Amino acid sequence: MIKRYLRLYKVLISQFFKVIMQSKVDFLMGLFGFFFTQIVGIAFLYLVFQQIPTLQGWTLDQLIFIYGFAQIPRGIDHLFTDNIWMVAWRMVINGDFDRYMLRPMNVLFQIIGEKLQPDALGELLVGSILIVRSMMKGVVIIDAVHIFFFILSVLAGALIYTSIKLFFASLAFWVKCSGPFLQTAYEMADFAKYPSEIYAKPIRFIITWIVPFAFVAYLPASYFLGMGGFFGSGSNPGVIGIEWMIAVVFCGVAYLVFQKGIRIYESAGN
């Protein structure tokens, strides 16, 4: 079964690349646009630290690592599962979802496998550059254990991003267009680029336990930086285990909501 789906994924993605190669300029402009957006975010950090030496005890180099760390799981999610956005915005309300229901394949697999988002390479490139910069400056701890946990954390973070996106996109089966809800929730990911201590307690609670973006960057990044966190994450790799538990729980809940939505789906008709 897995081998069959891998083969189908290869076929679907090859067809997608044939499409985007028809408009190379659009592809390059999208890639440059996302890259430029990330550069602006980094420039903002530099402007802030020209006025203040530290932010709640965090230095510029540490914040740059958190910023770069946040881009890796977000970029992976953006690259592979961006098509889920279309469920929220138009597939259900327009009746485009019908074609997935008619094929003898897993519906979520079809949606994800239909498209890659090359614009995400801008996020991945900037994130990787900032991570390498932090390693060269000795900001983060580098050894086999930390590298192993880094890979685990990135994968868990990407799964959290996808789960949140799938959950809010699935609400479209009830409200027809859940794009505004998904947009609002997803934009909260920007809070993950900075230490949670700088926010008010209600915001910290929301981004930690309701829409857990704190677990895709700040909290695991604290472990790699050797800094403190809500769970003493600076010295405790258990925060990566908690991150994985949250990722699995949110993934399971999101998929159950998606499956429930499929069962009540009614074509938009004409």
Concise summary:
The chain is mostly helical and 270 residues long.
What can you see in these coordinates?
This protein is mostly helical and 270 residues long. 71% of the residues lie in helices and 0% in strands. The protein has helices at residues 2-20, 24-49, 60-81, 84-94, 98-102, 107-113, 120-136, 144-170, 172-175, 179-187, 201-210, 218-225, 238-264. The longest helix is centred in the middle third of the chain and has 27 residues, at 144-170. The two termini are 36 Å apart. The mean pLDDT is 84.
Core attributes:
mainly alpha
What's the average pLDDT?
84
Biggest sheet details: none
Which spans have pLDDT < 50 for at least 5 consecutive residues?
none
CA radius of gyration is 20 Å
* Strand portion: under 5%
SSE class: mainly alpha
Could you give the order of the helices and strands? HHHHHHHHHHHHH
Number of discrete helical segments: 13
The backbone outline, from C-alpha atoms, is globular
The number of strands is 0
Helicity range: over 70%
The rounded distance between the terminal residues' Cα atoms is: 36 Å
